[in-house]
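Duplicate of #3305? Posting structure anyway:
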């Protein structure tokens, strides 16, 4: 009612024209900068008789208010930009650290494979010279020989990857199961290539 009286005093428009304008706002899909509110602000208004107040979508502000609001918006935008930049930079550092750790782990795995091959081969040579009782050596025995007790938990992943690598990529080492000292255990046996056996015949 206050808005209708104000418009009538300023423009001289009739109440019918004011209601027609409200009806056009309700039926229009355009954003005209005026929102029609009912008794419950959360519910949308569908008819003019339910409109109790008008709300401006573009409030009038003074120069100082506009400047402070623009400054706040600019500062917020800059802070969000730098926060996003810092997040991406941290993510990049984390990925580089992860890649470096994976490379170090892979290198440690290959070094472990070399040590395992050397131990199994030396054991087989000792067996040929009657310095060892069996031609095979227990996998856990090799692990305990190569890795100190205090490092076994830290090196577990490297050891597991090395064992898996040998099982799928090393033909000179054969994995078997034997009973040793009354206990079943997995062992490694050094296997000579076939051309060595042929040449020895």
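Output from current build:
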């Amino acid at each position: 009612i206050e808005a209708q009286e104000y418009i009538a005093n300023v423009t001289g428009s009739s109440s019918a024209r004011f209601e027609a304008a409200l009806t056009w706002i309700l039926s229009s899909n355009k954003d005209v900068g005026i929102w029609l509110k009912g008794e419950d602000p959360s519910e949308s208004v569908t008819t003019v008789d339910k409109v109790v107040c008008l709300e401006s979508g573009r409030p009038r502000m003074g120069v100082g208010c506009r400047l402070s609001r623009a400054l706040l918006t600019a500062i917020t935008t800059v802070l969000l930009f730098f926060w996003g930049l810092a997040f991406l930079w941290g993510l990049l550092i984390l990925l580089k650290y992860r890649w470096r750790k994976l490379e170090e782990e892979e290198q440690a795995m290959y070094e472990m494979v070399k040590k395992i091959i050397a131990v199994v081969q030396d054991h087989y040579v000792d067996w040929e010279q009657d310095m060892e009782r069996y031609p095979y050596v227990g996998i856990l025995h090799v692990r305990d020989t190569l890795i100190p007790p205090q490092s076994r938990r830290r090196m577990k992943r490297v050891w597991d990857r090395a064992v898996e690598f040998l099982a799928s990529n090393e033909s000179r080492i054969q994995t078997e199961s034997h009973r040793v000292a009354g206990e079943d255990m997995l062992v490694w046996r050094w296997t000579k290539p076939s051309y060595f056996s042929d040449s020895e015949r």
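Confirmed duplicate; merging threads. The chain has two domains: 1-56, 103-190. Residues 1-56 form one domain.
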